[in-house]
Amino acid sequence: MSVKKREWTLKPNEEFRFEVEPKQTLTVKLTEGKAELFGTELAVDYEYQFQGKKLGIFTWHGCKLETSGPAISEYIGSETMMNEHLNMHFALENLRIQAKKENRNGPRVMIVGSSDTGKTTLAKTLINYGTRHQRTPILCDIDPKSGLISLPGTISCMVITRPIDVEEELNANIYKTSPIAYYYGSNIFDKQEFYLLLVNNIKDSIEKKLDNDDKIRSDGIIVDTPCEFVEQQGIEILKEAIELLKIDCVIVIGNERISSILTQAGKSVIKLQKSGGIASRDKIWHRQIQAKRIKEYFYGKDLTPFSQTVSFNDIIVRQIKKGMLAPSSALPIGMETNPNSINFVKIETSEILLHSILVVSFVPLPGTDDEGNIKLYTPEEETELLKKSNVCGFVYISEVDEVKRKMTVLGPNPGRLPKTFFVMGELKWLDS
Amino acid sequence: MDALKNQYLNSLRELTFNSKPIITNLTIIAEENLSNAHVIVQAIEQQISNVQPAFVIPLLYLMDSILKNVGKGYIAAFQKNLVRVFSDAYAKVNDADKARFQTWKATPGGYLFPSHVIAGIERAINVANLPPVGYVMNNGQKPPAAASVRPAVPQPVLNQAQVLQRLTALLAQKNALLLANPNNYQLGTEINVLTQLLQVVQTTTLDPNTLASINSKIDSIAPTVNSIPPNILPTAPARPAIHHPSPAMPTPSIPSIPIGTTIGLSGGVGLGSNGVAGLGSNGLGVPTLGSSAGLGSMTVGSAPGLLGQSIAPKTSGLGILPNSINPSLLANINSSALNGLLSTLNPSTLLSMTNSDQKVPVIQLTQSDITKPIKNLYNVLYDDIELQCKQCALRFPGENGKEELTAHLDWHFRKNRRKHEKKKTSSREWYLTEPEWVIEQPIEPTENQVAPVFFDQPEEQEVEVQSCIPTTDPINKCEICKETIEKFYDDDNDGWMLRGAVKVNDLFYHQTCYNDKQDTPSLPKRTLDSDDMEPSKKIRVQ
Ligand SMILES: Nc1ncnc2c1ncn2[C@@H]1O[C@H](COP(=O)(O)OP(=O)(O)OP(=O)(O)O)[C@@H](O)[C@H]1O
Ligand SMILES: [Mg+2]
Ligand SMILES: [Zn+2]
Ligand SMILES: [Zn+2]
Predict the structure, then answer these.
(1) CA-CA distance, B384 to B331, in Å (whole number)?
(2) Which InterPro entries did the record assign (chain A) (predicted)?
């Protein structure tokens, strides 16, 4: 498709907003002036390529942009919240300086709001500004749908040392630090207790890291949250998460009800309006973006994944089930199962795995350990270990041959597959 | 190296008079080349010994500016030949300029240089037969008779309580100003600094040197001399509040001394803490006063011919360049601004304050602060950080900015080269275990690639190990299990491929078989031809 070039001249404090389909590519070039994408400064004359994005490029100074390729929409807007976002950053800076001086925790803010209010965007912007000030803040994503840091389905966090990549965001292979992720699933109301357990897991990991590193400690944490938090059912989870993560200040975007509820509950709250540029995204869009995320995990820019064939016997897969005990466990008569309990149950290796993304855990398979001892787990032990385990990575099952009892597994790198439990989540993918 | 030196030497040639812009500029260049401080220092030393006598003093001013505003590696680099350079320079210059040298000694040089170096310089200059320390010739005049010079009576130095009082008063004043000018972030910055100083003074017992430094810092922030509460200067003579703004380099916030004679000298170590007042007279017989006693820092008058303007109280360092703590000069050296101010203080007590060398306006995490507009605040993230990578727009603030940018450009280079050579060499790593993540330190991702947790493969393998390998042979067997390796037709590449296989030294294996063999200790691990790839430098955490 040939669409000719468009030029855009932005005055100071204006924003160029555009949307591009997942399967199409829009090229944007900053030809003059200075501009930033959610806090990451753009390079002049570099042709940025975007697929499946709804974005706003903002300029403090005024600038000229040039676009080419097909776009769903393109326009210049002037109602932004950038002033507030920048001030917010400087407020955090002041707290960081203070924290450093007094050798205590830096600011921990949580961003809350209903869907498509710009929570994730604000989180990115604050992180980016922080890194431009030589900070190394922690970005913590407890929205299992988003896949901002790791794949969707996880809650995760990462120390960020440089502005987020314009094109590939946090999936780019340019960061000096790694994520830590815990696998949950999709709907936070599904397994509330398990969700909070994982928030607690990530909190524990963060606290350990901070105990180890004063710089990161004073640079603070930015928490991005799921939109479900502002639903009636979600408020208690929200409050719990605020407590667990020791949040100093909650930024509520465009929701007076929630901000007053939190204020009444004694939380420190800052209210922000939704920016004029925020685009809404439907289910189809989210699904497409999810697939794009998965693809980037394996095949991101300059990345080569590796495929290998393994025997059915080599891989042991578990699945998260609610309110059910592992099959081998017999309940004494009269005892009820807890409907909310979470178990990791066995899943027979079969066709069922085809096109699944499996979560690779860090829980070693039962067998002989280094000292030659035979190690076996009870189902309860297994579940306990898997609940606590962070994610080692993801593999994709591209082929299953039930006759030969072999399957083809795509892993992110050429290393041998870890000899650990794999967990089948909700992610399916067609590697096309 | 030579290129840098020659380049700098070229720029130095412009420094034939005491030009603030040139000195500032040369200071910035020096700062940018901190990692090559010795080269810059060599260039300056060489220039000092080669230039005609009239141009020596501006070079010393430059030296002073670098020492104060950049410091760090430059202190050691200059220290090496300091005594020789100084005595050579001294021998070279005319009498009027020789007088300038005396003023130099009247500074708390002990901050920057050990006492033996200072003593060495003093000796060198005294050997050259100068009037004894304590008074100075001016404009070639004979020194006044000893009797006419007030003896260096130890003046009261501000103690910690007095400094605290000064700080509190100034802070209150600045806060009031901020109320009137809420958008002035320079003010905010000053308040920040003052608050930090206050914190230190309140919580730490400080030695006189540090107190003196803090005091001079207060001087640099204090808007007028009048702002100093008079009651804390009980015995010090009032400082004249005459202002001589210089067009080139306005010094609005620094109280100035009338053009006149240089006085106020005292020898020895620990000068900074024992500011000594002296008296002198200029050619017009107008008494001038260069007292710093009340402020705890030295004040040195300037010879008009040299500076052509009034001068400000000394802070520390060589102290030749009186205005070297002028905020506007520091602002020019952007990111080092706060640092420059702070680095004059004892690092151990103030370590915590130097975490940010950016200008940070005071904004609280409150509804009202978040919504108030502050003009041009964004510049702190843009123009105030000059070092920038043109390829990706990353900016490099901070004291190591230059080195970081260099490393960053190297990284681009390596990345681009690999891309160019079409080596798809990297793969996403497995994530770290929790204990590994907890202690992970940031490292460049290029050195970070393909280091699987569970399989200690040398990096070069990945180039040859492929999961799917094109083949033209009808049948390929695995060298290990001797079974046929499965083939499939690959539409993308228009050819037959072996699935899940590896090719090592032209032999084919099932990847699983090969991996298993690799685990067997008897087999040498590195059986592969390595190409020019450097081995993985990643240091795995245990
Ligand atoms: N200023 C802007 N101009 C154009 N697009 C924007 C702007 N700000 C945000 N967007 C886009 O709007 C969409 C929604 O924003 P964002 O993801 O930040 O919302 P969210 O509140 O995190 O949503 P969710 O509840 O789904 O997590 C995103 O595609 C984002 O890139
Ligand atoms: Mg979001
Ligand atoms: Zn770059
Ligand atoms: Zn084989």
Answers:
(1) 9
(2) Clp1, Clp1/Grc3, Clp1_C, Clp1_C_sf, Clp1_N, Clp1_N_sf, CLP1_P, P-loop_NTPase
Question: What residues of chain B lie within 8 A of the CB of A61, using their CB?
Answer: 382
Residue B223 has pLDDT above 70, yes or no: no
* N- to C-terminal Cα separation, chain B: 40
**3-state class percentages of chain B: helix first, strand second, coil last, to nearest 5:** 50, 5, 45
With beta carbons under 8 A apart, name residues in chain A contacting B369: 87, 91
Residues of chain B above pLDDT 70, percent: 46
CB contact at 8 A, B339 and B361: no
What secondary structure letter does DSSP report for A277?
T
Q: What whole-number distance in Å separates Cα of residue B80 and Cα of residue B128? A: 21
Residue located via tokens 């041009």: B376
C-alpha dihedral (A211, A212, A215, A218), degrees to nearest 10: -10
Residue nearest (by alpha carbon) to ligand 1 atom 5: A55
Best interface-test mutation with A: which of B202, B385, B434, B481 has the largest number of A CBs within 10 A?
A: B434
Look up residue B17 and give its DSSP letter: S
Known binding residues of A are 15, 54, 116-121
**ipTM for the complex?**
0.94
State chain A's mean pLDDT as an integer: 92
| Sign of the CA dihedral with A202 first, then A207, A208, and A214 last | positive
Min Cα distance B514 → chain A (Å) is 10
Amino acid at B21: P
CB A390 within 8 A of CB A204: no
Q: Is A17 in the pocket of ligand 1 (CB under 6 A)?
A: yes
Least confident of A297-301, B97-101, B299-303: B299-303
Residue in chain B lying closest to A392 (CA): B431
**HEC string for B501-520:** EEEECCEEEEHHHHHHHHHC
Cβ-count burial of A390 within 10 angstroms (0-12 exposed, 13-18 middle, 19+ buried)? Answer: buried
The answer, for A98 touching chain B at a CB cutoff of 8 Å, is no
List helix spans (H) across B282-400.
304-307, 327-332, 336-343, 347-350, 367-371
Q: Give CA–CA dist A232/A319, Å, rounded.
A: 29
Q: How many residues does chain A have?
A: 432
Given an 8 Å threshold on Cβ–Cβ distance, is A307 in contact with B468? yes
A388-402, B88-102, B103-117: which has the minimum mean pLDDT? B103-117
Q: What is the pLDDT of residues A79-127, one digit of tens each?
A: 999 999 999 999 999 999 999 999 899 999 999 999 999 999 999 999 9
Give residue B498's region: left, alpha or beta (phi > 0; psi -120 to 50).
beta
Structure tokens at A203: 């909190």
Q: Is A416 in contact with B455 (Cβ distance < 8 A)?
A: yes
Do the chains contact at A414 and B444, CB–CB below 8 Å?
A: no
Residue A424 parent element (H or E): strand A420-428
Residues 316-355 of A with CB under 8 A from B: none
Residue B217 contacts residue B315 (beta carbons within 8 Å): yes
Q: Looking up tokens 């700062």, which residue turns up?
A: B31
Chain B interface disruption, residue of A210, A306, A387, A417, most B CBs within 10 A: A306
Q: A117: Cβ below 6 Å to ligand 1?
A: yes
Query: Look-up: residue for tokens 């060495």?
Result: B120
For the segment B371-401, what is each residue's pLDDT rounded down to a tens digit?
A: 988 888 999 999 889 899 999 999 998 888 8
Residue A208 tokens read as: 């350990």
Count CA atoms closer than 13 A to B275's CA, side-chain side.
Answer: 30
Strand order from edge to edge, sheet including A221-224: A179-183, A154-159, A138-141, A221-224, A108-113, A249-253, A269-272
Which residues of chain A lie closer than 8 angstroms to B363, CB-CB? 87, 90-91, 93-94
The pLDDT of residue B159 is 76
Dihedrals phi, psi of A276, to nearest 5 degrees = -65, -20
Q: Is A125 in the pocket of ligand 1 (CB under 6 A)?
A: no
